[in-house]
């Protein structure tokens, strides 16, 4: 098993891509702390991980609140003793045209997608630096690479920030044996898509996703989880500072 004995944190691990990553890591032998705001969701996933024979923690928390992030990391260290893998997956979207964007919406998107990711990275990296090893995997987005539909300005800007932050952290933490990479998923039908769009907009999301993918389809949460497992494993030991797309080949990004 590629992650036997490893200890991982997955933010936003109660649903969608995060849940798929939790289950993939657990099947590969990792013990996992699952954290997000909705306690019910993460407790359900925790029980599924325990059913696989792994140790698991569900820690309700909001990545936007530094104190809650620090408390979560303290609980994980108290329970697991170390942290080998951090997956910064928690994210949110509120598609809004630029002229209609309010400061509150901008802040919600940036505080969740970028500031929360910074809080989690900083808190965990302090331990990884002492350990002299670790893997940090940030979930970015295809939107950061210019494949934007209207209404994605704040989301795309936050995810472009994630890419820049990923590279900066890779540079600073590399000397301590820590790999920092990002995954930029293409279109995948998850609760985030349904929560941020009308049913008509979801249909459009699917239609555009199929027509702009070389493979002619949307991705699955498991396909992102397979890539996360590779990046978390020793197979990816010489890969760092990369933003890796997993998007079925987007025709509008192929030149
Ligand atoms: N689906 C796509 O097509 C797609 C494409 C590219 C990138 N992504 C990225 O993939 C990641 C996962 O999204 P998803 O599509 O799987 O949607 P999702 O199921 O809605 O997952 C987002 C997760 O983030 C958590 N979260 C949101 N705000 C949080 C906060 N303040 N504190 C802690 N946790 C928070 C949510 O849990 P709670 O509500 O319980 O807090 C939820 O579990 C996101 O970063 C998203 O931007 C998705």
* Strand arrangement across the biggest beta sheet: 3-2-1-4-5-6-7
Output mean pLDDT.
96
Helix and strand composition category: alpha/beta
Summarize the biggest pleated sheet. Answer: 7 strands, parallel
Q: How many discrete structural domains? A: 1
What is the string of SSEs from the N terminus onward? EHEHEHEHEHEHHHE
The CATH homologous superfamily is termed NAD(P)-binding Rossmann-like Domain
Distinct ligands: NADP nicotinamide-adenine-dinucleotide phosphate
What is the CATH C level class, in words?
Alpha Beta
Shape: globular
Helical percentage: 40-55%
Low-confidence stretches: none
User: What's the β-strand tally?
Assistant: 7
Molecular structure report:
With 255 residues, this protein is α/β, with parallel strands linked by helices. It has a single domain (7-249), classed as Rossmann fold (3-Layer(aba) Sandwich), CATH 3.40.50. 47% of the residues lie in helices and 15% in strands. A seven-stranded parallel beta sheet has the order 3-2-1-4-5-6-7, sandwiched between helices. Helix 1 (16-27) packs across helix 8 and helix 3 packs parallel to helix 4 (103-131). It starts with 6 loop residues before the first strand and ends in a 9-residue tail after the last strand. The model has no long low-confidence stretch (mean pLDDT 96). NADP nicotinamide-adenine-dinucleotide phosphate (NAP) binds at residues 11-12, 14-18, 36-38, 41, 62-64, 89-92, 112, 116, 139, 141-142, 185, 187-188, 190-193.
